[in-house]
Amino acid sequence: MVQAIGRDPVPAGEARRPAELLDEEERSRLASLGYVSSGSVPAARADAPRPADMTRLYETIDQASFLFVREDYAKAIPLLERIRVEDPGNLDAVLRLATAHSALGHGERAERAFGEAEKLAPGSQDVRTYRALHYVRGKQWPRAVPLLERVVAESPDRLPAAEALALVRERQGRVEEAIALRQEVYAKRKASAAELVHLGLLAMSANRTELALDSLEGARAAQGGAFRHDLELGVVYLAARRLAEARDALDRVPPSHPEYPMALFKRAQVSVLLHEPDRAARIERAREQADATTGELIARERLFRKAP
């Protein structure tokens, strides 16, 4: 076996890519997880080491991979540096090294490593993806936009890129596009409760009442007693004229909530619309505990002028 490995030639640049050996479902799964080497082929080098000579690095590669997956980047970096030094053409190691530095806020070292990865695999989608994610983490996030747009156009199933593009669309104020991207992502994988809350709040900002309701109700079903967005849920129920559900949601908002005055104001509105016998008392309570924002809203609220 050792002799066979030693005779194994370095693949030419036009050699079949490993990703093509996977079926469509496997490719989509790997791409959705953002795995490196899902499609990149490093440039063939005349000075590439014999595979048989690199077996000494197997244990180091395994340890580095284990630490990287655990996001223990500080411990992974020395191992990745060793691999990079002993096998300079190892794209996976260089790209993970760049990503580890990025995650730890080492901007200059991350940028140098991404540049090295670009030389190893010119035009690589993997390099574009992880470099874009690096930019998204910091103040240079506008530089990520063209990279992410290209990656998402080429590989819609690369969900980390689509999520990052949704985030930059939010920062650009392009909320409808951000919502559409997140919906596409969650159609391909299950959204977490936190992600459903975020989508619900985005939908509220865009006056997408039905989507906001679906998202916030889904988050509440997933989180149960840990759900902390009853105020927003109550506001959306009120917008949908589902008054009984708005009442119940607003009644769950605790006095310790930082926006409790808004909860009292909205609850008073619901009380008037439901013709509750204590509606006048609820209006008075909202007035007594009003802040600067709700005080103005209460003064202008026509519903309260008609209430007994």
- N-to-C order of helices and strands: HHHHHHHHHHHHHHHHHH
Question: What would you call the structural class?
Answer: mainly alpha
**CATH topology value of the domain at 53-122:** Serine Threonine Protein Phosphatase 5, Tetratricopeptide repeat
Tell me the strand percentage band: under 5%
DSSP helix fraction: 55-70%
Give the secondary structure arrangement, pairings included.
Elements: H1 2-7, H2 24-33, H3 58-69, H4 73-86, H5 91-103, H6 107-120, H7 125-137, H8 144-154, H9 159-171, H10 175-188, H11 193-205, H12 209-223, H13 230-239, H14 243-251, H15 260-273, H16 279-288, H17 292-300, H18 302-306
Helix pairs in contact: 3-4, 4-5, 5-6, 5-7, 6-7, 7-8, 7-9, 8-9, 9-10, 10-11, 11-12, 12-13, 13-14, 13-15, 14-15, 15-16
Structure in words:
The structure is a single chain. 67% of the residues lie in helices and 0% in strands. It contains 18 helices and no strands.
Quick gist of this model?
The protein has 308 residues and is mainly alpha-helical.
Name a few traits of the molecule.
308 residues, mainly alpha, Serine Threonine Protein Phosphatase 5, Tetratricopeptide repeat, 0% strand
